[in-house]
Model the fold of this input.
Amino acid sequence: MIRQFLAMVWALPSAAVFGLAAEKAPAPAQGTHKPAVLVEAESFRDRGGWVIDQQSIDKMGSAYLLAHGLGKPVKDAATTVRLPAPGTYRVWVRTWNWVSPWNAPGAPGRFQVLLNGEPLKETFGKQGDAWGWQGGRKVRVAQRQVTLALHDLTGFDGRCDAIAFTAGDAAAPPNELKQLAAFRRQCLGLPDEPPLEGTFDLVVTGGGVAGICTAVTAARLGLRVALIQDRPVLGGNSSSEIGVGASGLTNVPPFPQIGHLVRELGQTGDERRLKVVRAESKVRLFRNMHVYEVHARNGRIASVTARHIVRATEHRFAGRLFADCTGDGTVGFLAGAHWRMGREGRDQTGEPKAPQKADNVKMGSTLHWRSEDVGRKSPFPDCPWALRLDANSCTRSMRTFQSPFYWETGFRRDAASETERIRDYMLRAIFGNWGFLKNRSGIRARYATRRLTWVGYVLGKRESRRLLGDVILTGVDIRRKKAYEDACLTSTWGIDLHTPHADNTRHFPGREFISRGSGLAKKNVEIYPIPYRCLYSRNIDNLFMAGRNISVTHVALGQVRVQNTTGMMGEVVGRAAWICREHNALPRDVYKMHLAELKELLGRPAKHTE
Done:
């Protein structure tokens, strides 16, 4: 199919179109021809009020632009495109109606595409129950250079992946993921082999608190480190994009030196974290890079390949050691590491908090939101496409600062592969609840002058894949204070498992968006040292883990997942990586042959040794 498509549109000798002011697209080899002009929306020169969403890149092949305006149309995104020649082209737009999975009425994400300031006849975002190419009308272009703009009509999360110009009567570009990837590579002139960015002592994927602490600790001990993060900011769940506060104590026995770096990063502040990372000359930071491919052989990773979420360029990172700090266990999953998702059964683990039999229920994901009193009437539409709530099912909240943790959903969804659907359902819940309070509730007068000021669009995830190590820590281990000789960092949280709230289940069975937590009371706090053997893969020899994807059961994850604790995991992994380099060892060897040295290193600050 792809060959047939390429043959139909072979006449277009176009270079890739990126529309970037400072960063140029790679030039195609002389004498080659391109099948179409492909404009990736995320590469628009001026994104206006649209934002880049990369959370579903594994499922759809690239990032996309999102019009996240909280009900007010966002400023146009605009760029300039150079076509091969004046003439007639078909214009295709990859988008969809994002509320279609729920058969919801209307289409909140409507937008127009403007060509040289004039809208195409179609309104996009109105149709389609999945991502796909829409449009295809012929347009006559009198000049080679044209302007493109995305004009949002609603402010309710319209989305555009790409725009393609094809010749004559060519069919729509391919939409199946593998064929679409080949089409993108052909249009964008990407080389067959991604360039090598370097060979590192340690390659860290994931720039949350765990990833930062892993990279910086290793660098301070003299390792050459690559830190790859798929967002423009560092911090993960505690970044400004998600807004979760860091919890858990630091600097506690048996190794009170562990936690200094977590404290150095602070509770909040994107710039503060970036400054800490940039201060380390041995850390090369790669932001906006999404790892999508892992090259592994005989149980060892040789390199990972990442795609830049703005430029669409591809880059390879080789190393001797790798650390998966993605939260979703992405690197381990792609490498073939053993993993679990969901709840183990009580028959497997003996954990009283586990269900009798294993299932796929998980802790959910959160979007935070805020409102403020603006001192005048502030209207908000009723949103018929959102969840329909009433006086019994709504949540009465104003949230001047931040919505509480219990706005949570996706309990029965795959948080690694269904991110867009989980996020979109939570948007429907937030907007539906706010629309009811503002327009139809008996207390709407109280909300008349309140306005939504911020709603997140990047999910704060609690649980997805867990990579398995030589020890799988259980809730029984924690409660019984099982002593492991390789105990290395101490968690200080309750076994806090989030489940759907019974009242919300009564109104939205199987579709809950409000949760309840357990183990938050001070009396339920468990002080427990986590064994080192939870921090490396049992079947991928050179893979460390730090974060919520370490080797624990679902129940144990309820305690170890908070960010100060995951940051301390990174401080341990960074030290273990230094031992691996010094002794030409692997993560498992640190436990088997160098445990005393690891403990000695855990007992002192991680300062540069060179």
